[in-house]
Amino acid sequence: MSTQSDTIVDIQGLNKWFGALHVLKNVDLTVGSGTRVVVCGPSGSGKSTLIRCINGLETYQQGTLRLAGTMLGLNARETARARRQTGMVFQSFNLFPHLTVLSNCTLALRRVAGRSRAEAEDIAMAHLEKVRIPEKAKSYPGQLSGGQQQRVAIARALCLNPRIMLFDEPTSALDPEMIKEVLDVMVTLARDGMTMVCVTHEMGFAREVADQVVFMDGDASSTAHPPATSSARRDIPARGFFSKRS
Amino acid sequence: MGFDLAFALSSVPIILGAVGTTLFVALVSCIGAAATGFLFEMVHRVGGIAGLTIGFVIDFIRSTPVLAWLYFLYFVLPFYGIRLGSMTVGVMGLSLYYSGYLAEVFKAGIDAIPRGQSEAARALSLSRRDAVIHVIAPQMLRNIAAPLGNYFVSILKATPYLAVLAVPEMLGQAFDIASETYRYTEPLVVAGIIFLVLALAISHGVKRLERRLLAVGAR
Hints:
The complex is a heterodimer of chains A (about 250) and B (about 220). With about 250 residues, chain A is of the alpha/beta class.
């Protein structure tokens, strides 16, 4: 299903500090087009920071980060242009509460992609159908459940037709009974061939879709393995973590 | 000195005649103060030298009497060749003075918006301008409807300062009647009641607006 010839994200020796705190230590990561990378690890290990670096929401101090061929952080305009290749889904949804579900999805289509209202609404409705929530188009985010809000957030991110989707713990703020509806949408996306980087603790999801699992540890640099071996091998730090989680 | 109802009623039309001026000054000053205050806060937020300068300007404005501003604009600027009409000076003075306060209100309203909102706007590649117009400002307005309304009432109540520039606003007209007739009670009471009615009307309107804003997509 996937060809790895086309690299979308290329991270080499990435380092980041928040003041004295060294959050990212020599992180290497390559994400090929059509591949699914799951990032996991304990709290505070820099998972969210890493994924936020990929679309330039965070800056880094050392190393290189190429997104769709553009070095991020050198030039604000080029960083912004490269960011358009990404869609991001946040742990806390971050839908715009004063706009309807449909307007949440059409805002960037109209203001960034320059689409007409009718075009934008058609595209948005198609994505809302993909996440199985078209009937809520006229509702406001505050009237939806957490799972519904997160599915809308996924649709909103998909509207600009990104080449890569970034998920920052998309199910961590959800009640258990809503996790599945969001994961189902993400699995469908993965099956459709979307390139994804996903920070998550959902090991079932990782096993089902991941081509590569990156384990981040506060002390060691990240290690990457194919998922089939990552929970079986004895010599990797991730093992205890995985067995606790899954 | 008793209260002469007939005299009070006879003063009503004259005082009401100035309501238009009072409301006009108040309305334009509210718009001017809100626009200037929002601009101040936007520059302040960017930081750097411009931000620091604006921060100082805001503090300076808030630490000086509004009358000082009116006198300065009206009596000092002509020495530098800038001669403005009394109405213009009045509106400028009130706008500038209250912009300092409104900048702080806007700041509080923006600070109360969760950080994730502007991050989501950035992640969606919205320009800074679009993020402010479509994401930040509407949510800010919802947060600050009540204090904003209070300041609009304050601006209305500050219009009598313009009497010092001979702008024919309501309280000045009432006082003119009083000075001519040596009857102070009636015209001042009438003017006071009209101010009360106007202020209550604004408060009521703001409360309704706030309820409507909060009802949109109730969180």
